[in-house]
Design a protein that fits this description.
The complex is a heterodimer of chains A (about 500) and B (about 200).
Chain A lengths: L1 H6 L1 H14 L4 H18 L11 H9 L6 H15 L1 H13 L5 H16 L3 H18 L4 H13 L8 H10 L3 H29 L16 H27 L5 H18 L5 H34 L2 H10 L4 H16 L5 H18 L4 H13 L9 H9 L5 E2 L6 E2 L4 H24 L2 H4 L10 H5 L5 H9 L20 H10 L1
Antiparallel strand pairs in A: 1-2
Chain B lengths: L1 H21 L1 H19 L5 H17 L1 H6 L15 H37 L12 H29 L6 H4 L5 H16 L1
The chains are: A mainly alpha (about 500), B mainly alpha (about 200).
């Protein structure tokens, strides 16, 4: 029996991981406990050095001093404050009127505003909720197909996952040991292509089923001509300013991605102040939610660090590597399997768990097979975006459900009774967009140049600015002596990384 | 049991206050970090002490809020399976997890990290960067963070068992925050209502 356990400890541990996670106890503690108990078992069987866990405090210290992770609270806080600044509402009102005369105009407006909000902050929930509250009732009023209306809102909200400054990309960069700046540069084009694909889908629907997305009648568009033009320019200023504050400062090298987040958060505070929406209670709620989100995210990382310490100790990484490198088809076979796996896991894991548990196992294998890790990261990013849209667990769908009418109501303008949006309609509405997402994964696999073509320019990663300052040499020494981590970035060992996409955090607020 | 419940209420109160105090560090972090970027660019001034302060505060937030986050049941779970179970079964799973996962894990990490703090304290360890900060305060945060987490774990365990014995209502319900989104939704909905 014990010989069998010794021979198969890594697979047993992996199976234990699945069982423990599915129990429904908080992920971070289950992971850590699993790592510790298997570590003790391994020490008992003489598989592991007794000093194994002495490395743990340093690993935790590495997480604490990880600069990249700091971006998590910054972007979270920014997203929360921004939600209150009124920017999304103004954009939707104005851009909706701009596109209104076109068939499917409101849907285009949602896609466009979704992309703009995505480039401003990394938060899915905020965009889905704002667009659900503002655009959905109008779309229903003027006879949009309910599935199209809800699908386009949920999907456009998830663009925040892939368009910089997405938190997802930060986490992936951290886990894969690449610079955040490169990851951003690599993701811009795929993000824009994806946005275009959404718009194309809307176009296709309006051509095939013109009645599914009618143009707005003139009485729904009080603004015209110059007035409208002025509003458009005016309303675009805040998001563009924020985009400059965050992305601009990162790309021109003023700020590290982390500081870009802080600049953006400060900008959001100022914006909310100008719009007189900043109250003490809002500020406290935002800090409260940010603190809790940060805590649970970092704790998942702590848990997965403990887990990976043991899992690597028993050569689990070699086991996974062996499994994946023996796949037929080399690079392409690996990518296909990994993407199918991620797609399936995304049905019930959310982004954090995927990034912290799965990505560190895959990164080293990808590197060994000669896969460019930025390309790999962006690919996974596009793929994981589906985890927000999968019925029935996608968070974007939850958010939308929470703001969509669920009982019949009387429309305020037309005075007509309006049917509720059913959960089934929301689910079916998401399906075409999940398909688009899969197509996009295929496009990125076939055309790696979409990602990598953009990187040379920005390889001077601003984050190096900070790293090269003579910081914490003791930690650096530690890193060198520590075993290489799972796919972790050179700087920190397996410990870093994490973060939650701000979206998730929102799920927090919304969901629980 | 009443004494234990009193202990649990005490722990809850301490972690609640600690959490509410510590979350201000989020705002301070944002301002410090934005200030660092600005001063480096505009004034060409960079200070390692200020740079390190960013992550000191970050560590304060996630370590000292660990108990607070547990109190509010916001450590993330995968509820695909457990959401189909009865409430009592879920609570039993929590009891199991608290006893076999959370408590041993956090006590063990506390025990591992204490000597590291003592070492930093006695040796006066200082950051390797010029002008960096002294290290023992952050080293202390690790055992401290896992201490507040274990304490909250004990409190949660007491509450779960009391619930299973029918002594108190569901403890999770009581500490549910109305999420920010919910608050905002309600306000926004009211606003739009008023507009139209």
């Amino acid at each position: 029996m014990s010989a069998w356990i010794i021979a198969n400890i890594a697979p047993i541990m992996f199976a234990g991981l699945i069982v423990f996670l599915l129990l429904g106890f908080p992920v971070s503690f289950a992971l850590a406990a699993l790592g510790l108990s298997f570590g003790l078992l391994g020490i008992h069987f003489g598989l592991l050095n007794e000093a194994l866990f002495q490395a743990l405090p340093e690993r935790i210290f590495g997480i604490m001093s990880n600069d990249t992770l700091l971006a998590v609270p910054f972007f979270t806080f920014m997203g929360l404050i921004l939600e209150r600044s009124g920017m999304a509402e103004d954009l939707l009102d104005t851009i909706g009127q701009l596109f209104g005369p076109v068939r499917g105009g409101l849907a285009y407006a949602v896609v466009f505003v979704g992309a703009l909000l995505a480039a401003t902050t990394g938060v899915v929930a905020a965009s889905v909720i704002s667009m659900g509250l503002i655009s959905l009732p109008i779309m229903l009023r003027y006879g949009y197909d309910r599935r199209l209306a809800s699908g386009v809102i949920a999907a456009s909200g998830t663009l925040a996952q892939i368009i910089p400054p997405s938190l997802v990309l930060i986490v992936l960069a951290d886990q894969l040991g690449r610079s955040v700046g490169d990851m951003y540069a690599g993701a811009i084009f795929p993000g824009l292509v994806l946005t275009a694909l959404y718009a194309l889908f809307v176009l296709g629907v309006t051509l095939a089923y013109p009645q599914a997305a009618p143009a707005l009648p003139p009485e729904a568009r009080p603004l015209r001509g110059w007035k409208l033009a002025r509003r458009v320019v005016f309303v675009l200023i805040p998001p563009l300013a924020l985009i400059f504050l965050v992305l601009g400062t990162i790309f021109i090298g003023v700020a590290t991605p982390t500081e870009g987040g802080a600049m953006g958060a400060t900008g959001a505070l100022i914006l909310a102040l100008i719009n007189r929406r900043l109250t003490w209670s809002l500020l406290r709620q935002a800090m409260n939610s940010t603190a809790k989100l940060t805590t649970f995210v970092v704790f998942i990382l702590v848990g997965s660090t403990v887990f990976s310490l043991t899992f690597r100790g028993v050569n689990g990484d070699l086991w996974i590597e062996h499994l994946l490198t023996s796949l037929p088809g080399g690079q392409v076979g690996f990518l296909i399997v990994v993407n199918v796996l991620t797609f399936l896991l995304a049905f019930f894991l959310d982004f954090f768990e995927l990034a912290f548990i799965i990505v560190p196992l895959l990164g080293p294998v990808a590197e060994k097979l000669g896969v460019d890790l930025i390309w790999f990261g962006v690919l996974l990013g596009v793929n994981m975006q589906t985890s927000f849209m999968h019925p029935p667990f996608g968070y974007a769908l939850f958010y939308l459900r929470s703001v969509a009418p669920d009982t019949q109501y009387t429309d305020k303008i037309t005075r007509k009774p309006t049917a509720p949006v059913t959960t089934g309609q929301i689910y079916w509405g998401a399906v075409p967009f999940v398909v688009i997402q899969v197509i996009m994964v295929g496009i990125v696999i076939v055309f790696p140049g979409l990602v990598t073509g953009n990187i040379e320019r920005s390889t001077v990663d601003p984050s190096k600015v900070k790293i090269e300052l003579p910081t914490e040499s003791p930690e650096e020494q530690r890193d060198e002596t520590a075993p290489p981590d799972f796919g972790q970035p050179p700087g920190g060992g397996g410990q870093k990384s994490e973060q939650a996409p701000a979206d998730d955090l929102q799920k927090q607020f919304g969901g629980k | 049991m009443q004494a234990l419940l009193a202990l649990s209420r005490g722990i809850d109160a301490v972690n609640e206050h600690l959490g509410r105090l510590v979350y201000w560090c989020v705002l301070i972090m944002v301002l410090v970090s934005a200030g660092n970027a600005t001063s480096r660019y505009a004034l060409n001034l960079a200070s390692n002490a200020w740079l390190e302060l960013q992550w000191y505060l970050f560590a304060v937030v996630f370590l000292l809020c660990s108990g607070y986050t547990l109190l509010h049941n916001e450590h993330i779970r995968i509820d695909v399976v457990s959401s189909h179970l009865s409430r009592r079964t879920q609570v039993w799973i929590d009891v199991f997890g608290l006893v076999f996962f959370l408590l041993p894990m956090s006590v063990f990490i506390m025990w591992l990290s204490w000597p590291v703090f003592m070492n930093a304290w006695t040796s006066g360890e200082i950051s390797g960067s010029a002008g960096g900060l002294i290290r023992w305060p952050v080293r202390l945060l690790v055992p401290l963070g896992f201490f507040v987490l274990s304490a909250q774990g004990i409190s949660e365990l007491i509450k779960r068992i009391a619930y299973l014995r029918g002594l108190i209502p569901d403890p999770v319900e009581k500490h549910k925050d109305p999420g920010l989104d919910v608050v905002l939704d309600v306000e926004q909905a009211a606003k739009r209502e008023a507009k139209s």
